[in-house]
Amino acid sequence: MKTGTDVYKESTVIRDTYRILPFQGIWTWLTGKDIPDRKPLWRSNSIEMIFWSISWVIIGILLIYWALNGQMALLPSIIVYLIGVLFSVSGARYVVATIIHQGVHGNLLLNQTSNKILCEVLSTILITQPYDSYRQFHIYEHHGKDFSTVEDKDLAAIYKLGFIPGKSKKQLYINLFLTLLSPYFHMSYLSGRIKSNLIGVQKYRLVMTIIQLLILSYMIWNIGIVSFILFIIIPYVIVYQIVSLLHLITEHVWLLRREKETIRDSHVNNSIGRFCGSSCPNSFALRYWPQWIMWAVAHLFYHLPVRMLILQGSLVCHDWHHRVSSVKEWYNYAALREVNAIKLAKEGKYDYTEFWGFHNSLDYVLTMISYGEPVKVSDLKYRLN
Predict the structure, then answer these.
(1) What's the pTM?
(2) Which of 17, 72, 277, 301 could connect to 31 by a Cys-Cys bridge, CB 3.0–4.6 Å?
(3) Nearest-5° angle of CA 287, CA 289, CA 294?
């Protein structure tokens, strides 16, 4: 595997091939990698990101409703439904893994009280971990001294789900496939989400959760179990939890901190940049058209869904976040990461680990886990969100 400035040069070459296309802002968003000194059409902010995340959920709900209630033939209904699920899950994951995530870091709104109120409302609606417990775990444990130790509940989740160092890469791939389809995994994940909203929470949060559960119960009675499964269970439980695990397992290398390795070094060494996309063909000449068709199909049906579902928001540059987690302009993640990358490359100190294509990130993580020393997992405490 290439390391140091060679990684930066290769990655930059791939991104530079997109210069043949118009609308560089779109390709920066899709790939997650910016080009130096690009001038955006407008200045983004946290409020805009909140708007987009919620809008995607609303668009998804409307498309699912149209698919189930519109007067369409079966095939168009299925297509509209799948697109609705894409937007619903993407918006929900954007809310949880980017908006609420930045909220617990205090990077979202003007003060911590505003951050907490917004995060509590959104996490109650989506039945995910409450603000207080998420902040305690994420800020003081995952971003602190517990990172890359058995006390890190994210690392513990990976190990408890069977992704244990010492297994062969083939065994890890099989385990991933079986886990994603496992009813036990989905039921335990959902059970954990519900319990985190009912047990050990403040009274106001308990009341909010009960109201939300009553609303969902009314939905079952009003629209029927089949429609409820199509509206709620498939997008916000099954698909949501599948893409959540796919994000989590590729977020870091998930190896225990080595002896004498500092906390900061473990954050740098175990975090991964996950860019979406691949090199563009050399030109629009007729002889390159077959390559352009393959490129377009891959981007539309693979890289774009991955970007929306698994690596939405700033997650595509999560390696940068683990270096500078308190940046208020987090929404400019691609540009700010690139500034830092250029600086490190010029100094000959480039130490990011990054891959183009989600499959390459996944393969790297499973390869590294397979090389690790076996770990006892019986007593590990973990969480999923």
Answers:
(1) 0.93
(2) 277
(3) 130
